[in-house]
Structures are given as structure tokens and as C-alpha cells.
Design goal:
single chain, 0% strand
Amino acid sequence: MSHLSWSDDLARESRLAGMLYLVIIIMGLGAEFGLRGPLVDLTDATGTAESILAAPGQFRLAIAADLVMALSDAGLAILLYLIFRNVAYGLALSAMVFRLIQTVLIAANLMALQTALMLLSSASDVSDAQALALVFLNLHGHGYDLGLVFFGVNNLMMGALIWRSKIFAKAFGAGLALAGFVYLIGSGLRFFALYLSAAFAPAYGVTVLAETAFCLRLLCQSPRR
């Protein structure tokens, strides 16, 4: 079957996928920029330590938000597979696997944040603890980008599935495919050309726009008679 034929069940799955996608966007951006971002400066170990210890609840809330995001991502991976399996079974299954790998990596990577908090909260040697905590915070950033490598591949696959589905506008597929390239390039820069990462950062706006647009499209899906 080369295209989707919407039923009540698939429409419900689409709307549920949209709701999970919305949770992922809100929790992911909220954790990174609203909660954790103001506390962490990877160029200042002492300042970061003082900020985290002054607001440990905020730091823990960021971890909780990321955990909710990961749980929602696992559910979304399964729902998108169910929605697109009749478009291209092998491609839909592969997309689910790559998204789940990303989810596992990001969830496991939260231990780096917890370790940093434990070091700062119970250290006897303050200066060493601050330096080591910053290493774990930096490790979290690298681990997150490692997960985004797999997510980038997932986005390319999802772009192809949407393009072939004949039910979603091809622009959504093109947007997700472009987002996939941004994730892959951005993660590559983090590992192999860190000095270029800051200049490339505005490109992530494309990913927010593309994913939010597809999220809203899923939420608006209704059965076709």
C-alpha cells in the first residue's frame, strides 16, 4: 500500500501522536532553555556550581522534564510507526528504531546531570568537585548530541514517509528532512569542529519550526470518509 487511508483509529493515533509531540517540544525546550540553561555556563565552573546549588530544585525539575520528554518520545516512536507502516513497512520500522535509540541515549544521559548534582551537593573538596561537575555537564551536552545523530536519521526517514504518504502535504516531509540534516550537521560540529557550533546554532530554528508544524498537523487530523 503506497499511501495512507485514514480510519477513526488512525485519526485517533495521529491526534495522540500530536499531543505527545507537543509534550516533547515543550518539555525539551523548557528543560534546556528555561530551566537548565540559566544555571549552566560551561566556561565557568565556580559560577555554574553556585547557580546549581542556589537552585537545586530548578536543576532537578529540568531532569524531570527531560525524563517526561524521553517517555513521550518512546510513545511517539511507536505511534508514528503504526501510522506510517502501511506507507512503507521497512522504512517506518527503521524510523521507529532510530527514534527509540535516540530516546534511550538521551534518557541514559540524564545520569550525567544527576552525577554533577551529587558531586556538588556532597563534595568535601569544592574546587575539584566543581571542575568534575562541569565535565559531567559537558558530557551531557555531548551525549545529547549523540542521541540527535540518530534522531537526525529518523527525521530523514520520516521526511521520506510523509512525502510518500499522499495524505500530508509534502512540505511537512521536506521540513522534517531539512531538520534531519540540521541535527546531523550540528551534532557533527559538536564532536569534530566545536569552534563552529555557536555560529551554526541559529539553524536549529529550522528544526523547531518543522517539528512544531508537523506536530500541529497531527493534532488537526480527522478521519476521511
